[in-house]
Fold this protein.
Amino acid sequence: MTVAATFGPRPALWLGLLGAAALGLAILAGVVIGETPLPLPTVMATFANRIWDAGLAVDPIEAGIVWNYRLPRTLVAAACGAGLALSGVVLQSLVRNALADPYLLGVSAGASTGAVAVAILGVGGGLVGLSAGAFGGALLAFALVALLARAAGGGSATLVLAGIAGSQLFNALTSFFIARSASAEQARGIMFWLLGNLSGVRWPDVTLALPAALAGLLLCLWHIRAMDAFSFGTQSAKALGVPVRRVQAVLIGITTLMTAVMVSLVGSIGFVGLVVPHAVRLVVGPRHGALVPWAALAGAIFLIAADVVSRMLIAGQVVPIGVVTALVGAPGFALILIRNRRRP
């Protein structure tokens, strides 16, 4: 049965509505479910009071949990999931390697180092924010990895190996900065943050995460034809009329920006940019016209679900969200590798 036969003459419209409904339900679940479950009527009444000034009776403590804690946390989780998944799609297209993602190519590690340098060492003298420091560290890491891969002879496999080396270098620098300059309390908080932590997220963080993810999505949609061409190599893309250097600079820049913003807000979260694009590609195919929006949607829902699980896994504690994504992502990626190997 075809998509048109299932959804009628406008499959894109119906699929878009289905995706929006799925994301809305995921956000609602992220607000309702947690350490202290909140009744759905309370959540809906809080939304009505805040958005339309409905004047419904709601316990002020529960209303504060809904609006000031869980909703911004869930929105940032959605934005981070979408941004990291899009980053994986872009990098896998540009370098033509299924293992490419911000975590493996050292971009996340570089962003973490930049953010920690600003927070602990005072780099920038108070004039540079965490996001700016993370962006600088991510750019530096990607440039170093690219130079190392080129010096080693190039190739997508070499780039991944250079990324692993770069990740280890920047992770070591981060640990050194923490050991040298942080107090015991600071060190504990930063190490927990580096594993992925949404506990401190509030509305100002939403105003950073959502625009970064939206800008990344729009730029990726604008360059879907170029990414399709890059899947066949840079020479093929050039032959098809793609301005290779300009498009590469734009896509690498937005990937680095999304990764830097997300890392500065919630720490380094692995496997989202690696597993989600693979899983979506198995469903919608390799064409970026479908892959880009559905990967963003799947990444948003995946990270919201991971955040909910992180709050419920151990009673009275919040597990770092990076631990949850690794527990799900590692076996999931193994299954994808086995499935691809068995293909004729």
Notes: The mean pLDDT is 87. The radius of gyration is 21 Å. Residues 30-342 form a domain with the ABC transporter involved in vitamin B12 uptake, BtuC fold (CATH 1.10.3470.10).
